[in-house]
Specification:
This protein has a domain of about 90 residues. The protein has 13 helices and seven strands. The strands form two sheets. A five-stranded mixed beta sheet has the order 5-4-3-6-7. The chain has a two-stranded antiparallel sheet with strand order 1-2. The longest helix is centred in the N-terminal third of the chain and has 29 residues.
Amino acid sequence: MASQARRIEELETENRELRTALDEARRAGKRQASPFSKGEPKPDPKRPGRKRGKDHGRASFRGPPDHVDEIHDVPLPDRCPDCGTRPEEERIAHQYQTEVPRAKPVVRRFDIHVGSCPCCGRRVQGRHPLQTSDALGAASSQLGPEAVALAAHLHKVLGATYGKIRAFFQAAFGVAVSRGGLARAVARLSRRFEPTYDRLLQDIRGSPVVYPDETSSRMAGYKWWLWVFVSPTTTLYVQRPSRGFDVIEEVLGRDFAGAIGHDGWAPYDRLALADHQQCFAHLLRRAKDLLSVAAGGAVHFPRAVKALLQGAIALKQRRDGDEISPHGLRVARGQIAARLDRILAMRLSHEANRRFQGHLARHADQLLTFLYRDDLEATNWMAEQAIRPAVLFRKVSGGHRSPAGARTHDVLTSVFRSCRQRVVDALALSVQALRAPQPEVIQLAPATATR
């Protein structure tokens, strides 16, 4: 009877907490500022801004430039502003100012010689290395490659709309261009990058480690899915109407044998030859969610899982910092594996805890892979960071109107983000692609992974 009464009290406490949380969620949904509200302000908030001390990173400031184009002498004033006495010079200090002058557009005219072959009668015309197209007539007035590259960067990387880019070009350069003209120019750049995009796909397939992720998208009002596949040197975006294994097979191939770090979505498990790593961030979040609503003895399981995950991450940090010997690493790995076995053997009565335990048991061989591979992370943070700009773009734009627009977005964002990973000038690469006579694989610099 005592145990029954204690169990009833635990359930009543949990029920009250859940009702309170549900009421707060319902009220928050009806408030105008609910998407951005974080609740009531804290009575003693922390001081805003960067924290002091070496534990919070190195303090930085803008350093002097590597060259100076203009020197202006700034002499002392004739009189002290307070007492009127003539000041005496003690030293000369330096101040630097980096200015961006208003750019003046360069308008080029190409006098193209047009003729025909006397043998076969084929029409022939010349082409200058600075040209990006052979179009004449109504399409003879075009934006230059630098302008198109800048527009694509503003739209695909910084998320500016074509309307804002149009206003920026008018204000900054005095160049009049329509939104439709910008969209067509960006689409033309995407077509030039098609072979490069296919090369990035091959790089992803051949990478020893890949981090995928997916999120919902919109296509002409219908639900699609935005996928991202990230390696330390390459990012590939793919939009498809499916969230199934067919997309994974299309990108990675059914026989992918590298390591894959993911969030536990079931289709990834069908890559039978790959080494899998479940994302610890997702598992920790699930454990913390259970702790936030658990009462009584129900807190023991999520608390044990949380401690196990944090201990495994701490061991990885010690390994990466050469703070543990190979023998010590093997011993510590064995201890963590034994703790995991004990957690999976716990007898649980709380339904949510049992579901979480079942998930861990089904993927027990995917939890500690990162402790056996130096090139594998404990989380899929690379994919999470790569998919965040795409989510912001989806929220601002509402999605794409056609598969062609989605393809343009996939190609350009993949190339631009891969350039960032490999420390390559994406604008210069875009100019090179536009000036090439035909679409070709644009070689990126030697892959140098950046974190």
